[in-house]
């Protein structure tokens, strides 16, 4: 921890929907939070960040410690990465510039193996952790975030210079940051399993929202799209099993039920498509497909969805 800080100093690398939401919640809980921005730097420096939350009400952070350049940030004890996985090449140098010695880097991203690529370019002294966000947030304008539902961040240690007890300590500290901000967070022993588990939701809904131009309510209401969702979910569960992960019994059915009760929601991939940003196809489709195949499990429905999305993505930019 930086010596002058009573609480760990937190840096947000990529202040979009996820980075903005959790950053605002942590700042409101009294943490010293510093936000790295790109296209929205001017607007957020001037007008602050607003979270219009259907859970917590209207949250406003008027004076944002905003930066356009990571080298200007003070050394941060925890760095929360809110950039899309498609931008991870560009965030590595920002992490190095904003990290205090021995900093904890928490990757708040969807997909499989996202820590592996980043680990390869991070200094050994940094701790790398994965955070699975169960939340429905999206940007509606510069510095404007809408929060529709949920919020939990589940955390697992990926790699770094810590023995087993120290790993647990850092995971617990990460969870405690979120608890202090009123957000649920549990420690996960097996990050890979947790990532597969999250994919059971993201593989069908993220991709189908783009392919069928639909949010969750119509996707759930229509018998054909619901059958597609179920077929995709079943394959991801099989893929996870082939890789040695035992998912809770009835997990896919549980997710269907939860989604049926969620507010009508457009996943982040839908927003990337409409804003003509690159889709997170590598992390959410290509890597799970390759990993499952290497373990002897083909996922033909997932593969077909991936190829359709790759076509759409190439023609969208
Ligand atoms: N939205 C959600 O509800 C959920 C999202 N996730 C996952 O969280 C991750 C983030 O998603 P989300 O918040 O929706 O994405 P957004 O597109 O809303 O936010 C990404 C932010 O990162 C910024 N950024 C990217 N690269 C850099 C860089 N090099 N330097 C500074 N800023 C950078 C972008 O800036 P710019 O505006 O300039 O592009 C943008 O503000 C994804 O992996 C997603 O799958 C997981 C669970 C739920
Ligand atoms: C599954 C969901 C909608 C909420 O748990 C989510 O976290 C996501 O969009 O990735």
From TrEMBL:
Residues 10-159 form the Ketopantoate reductase N-terminal domain. It catalyses: (R)-pantoate + NADP(+) = 2-dehydropantoate + NADPH + H(+). Pathway: Cofactor biosynthesis; (R)-pantothenate biosynthesis; (R)-pantoate from 3-methyl-2-oxobutanoate: step 2/2. Keywords: Membrane, NADP, Oxidoreductase, Pantothenate biosynthesis, Transmembrane, Transmembrane helix. Residues 190-311 form the Ketopantoate reductase C-terminal domain. It holds the Pfam family ApbA. It is an enzyme of class 1 (oxidoreductase). One of its GO terms (molecular function) is 2-dehydropantoate 2-reductase activity. The chain crosses the membrane at residues 12-31. InterPro entries: 6-PGluconate_DH-like_C_sf, 6PGD_dom2, ApbA, KPA_reductase, KPR-Related, KPR_N, NAD(P)-bd_dom_sf. Its EC number is 1.1.1.169. It comes from the Bacteria. Catalyzes the NADPH-dependent reduction of ketopantoate into pantoic acid. Belongs to the ketopantoate reductase family. This is 2-dehydropantoate 2-reductase. It comes from Pseudomonas lutea.
């Amino acid at each position: 921890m930086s010596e002058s800080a009573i609480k760990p100093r937190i840096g947000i690398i990529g202040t979009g929907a996820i980075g903005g939401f959790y950053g605002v919640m942590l700042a409101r809980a009294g943490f010293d939070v510093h936000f790295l921005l790109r296209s929205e730097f001017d607007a957020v420096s001037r007008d602050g960040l607003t979270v219009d939350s259907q859970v917590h009400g209207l949250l406003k952070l008027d004076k944002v410690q905003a930066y356009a350049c990571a080298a200007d940030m003070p050394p941060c004890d925890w760095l929360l990465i809110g950039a899309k996985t498609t931008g991870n090449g560009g965030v590595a140098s920002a992490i190095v510039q904003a990290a205090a010695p021995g900093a904890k880097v928490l990757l708040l991203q969807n997909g499989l193996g996202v820590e592996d690529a980043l680990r390869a370019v991070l200094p050994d002294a940094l701790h790398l952790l994965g955070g699975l966000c169960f939340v429905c947030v999206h940007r509606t304008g510069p510095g404007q975030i809408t929060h529709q539902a949920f919020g939990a961040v589940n955390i697992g240690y990926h790699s770094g210079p810590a023995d087993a007890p120290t790993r647990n300590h850092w995971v617990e500290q990460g969870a405690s940051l979120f608890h202090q901000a009123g957000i649920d967070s549990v420690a996960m022993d097996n990050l890979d399993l947790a990532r597969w588990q999250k994919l059971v939701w993201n593989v069908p809904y993220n991709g189908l929202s783009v392919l069928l131009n639909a949010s969750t309510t119509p996707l759930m209401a229509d018998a054909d799209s619901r059958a597609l969702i179920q077929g995709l979910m079943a394959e991801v569960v099989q893929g996870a099993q082939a890789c040695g992960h035992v998912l809770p019994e009835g997990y896919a059915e549980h997710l269907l039920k939860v989604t049926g009760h969620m507010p009508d929601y457009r996943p982040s991939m839908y927003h990337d498509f409409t804003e003509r940003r690159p889709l997170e196809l590598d992390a959410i489709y290509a890597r799970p497909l390759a990993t499952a195949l290497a373990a002897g499990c083909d996922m033909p429905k997932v593969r077909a969805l991936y190829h359709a999305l790759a076509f759409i993505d190439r023609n969208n930019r």
